[in-house]
Amino acid sequence: MHTPNMDLFEFVSTYAPLFFPAVRITLQLTALSIVLGLVLGLITAFAKLSSKSLINYAADAYITVIRGTPLIVQLSFIYFALPGIGIDLDAFTAATIGLGIHNGAYIAEIIRGGIQSIDLGQMEAARSLGMTYGKAMRRVVLPQAFRRIVPALGNQFIIALKDSSLAGLITVNEIYMTSRRLGASTFQQMEFYMLAGAFYLILVGIFSVIVARLERHLRTSSRQTSGVL
After folding, report:
1. What's this model's pTM, rounded to 2 decimal places?
2. DSSP letters along the chain, please?
3. In principle, which of 28, 33, 72, 216 could form an S-S bond with 99, CB 3.0–4.6 Å?
4. Digit-coded pLDDT (tens) for 55-85
């Protein structure tokens, strides 16, 4: 157990390894929720762009409800309320689904904005070459849109990582929950919250570096492609 005279190095070296399983859970939760969010976001973005009003309304309702209610309420509903109608999910699955649905609403607007930022002439030119709408979207519009939305997507992924801390409130043993549990057992809440913050800061820093490198790579590729053309 930690004692008040334990120095910083001894505290970190003693307790930091106890966070490693929680870091793994946090990364798994973040990765799975981002993948789910990307799938839902892409589907919803195309639904928003659809000419069918019913599909438009469904996409608008999803985005409005998810963006208009707190994430903790959404997680609590999935984990605590759904069992009342026979849908009983474990905490990790409930958190993954809840975070994925939440991310999807924001990612949908990012993707939609990226697609609409591409000049309509790009789609018209692709269609004039005999491409179907889907093929033109996949080969011409989406690659260009993706380059433009990488910074916004990167920010959303970082937000998703930090939002994963709310999963601790439905008993997922991620970083935040681990800091609460260890702090309560040792009566050193401040130290453990600071240690949890350090882990989040490191993970966010790694995510930020990855996104920045991807942005530079895409800019370089775009310049080279333009040069060839």
Report:
1. 0.88
2. ---TT--HHHHHHHHGGGGHHHHHHHHHHHHHHHHHHHHHHHHHHHHHH-S-HHHHHHHHHHHHHHHHS-HHHHHHIIIIIGGGGT----HHHHHHHHHHHHHHHHHHHHHHHHHHTS-HHHHHHHHHTT--HHHHIIIIIHHHHHHHHHHHHHHHHHHHHHHGGGGGGGT--SHHHHHHHHHHHHT-HHHHHHHHHHHHHHHHHHHHHHHHHHHHHHHHHHHHHHHH-
3. 33
4. 999 999 999 999 999 999 999 999 999 999 9
Q: Which of 11, 9, 18, 30 is nearest to 203 (CA)?
A: 30
Look up the domain containing 48 and give its range: 8-228
| Residue 209 counted as domain residue | yes
CATH number of domain containing 33: 1.10.3720.10
Confirm whether 1 is domain-assigned.
no
Count how many domains the chain has.
1
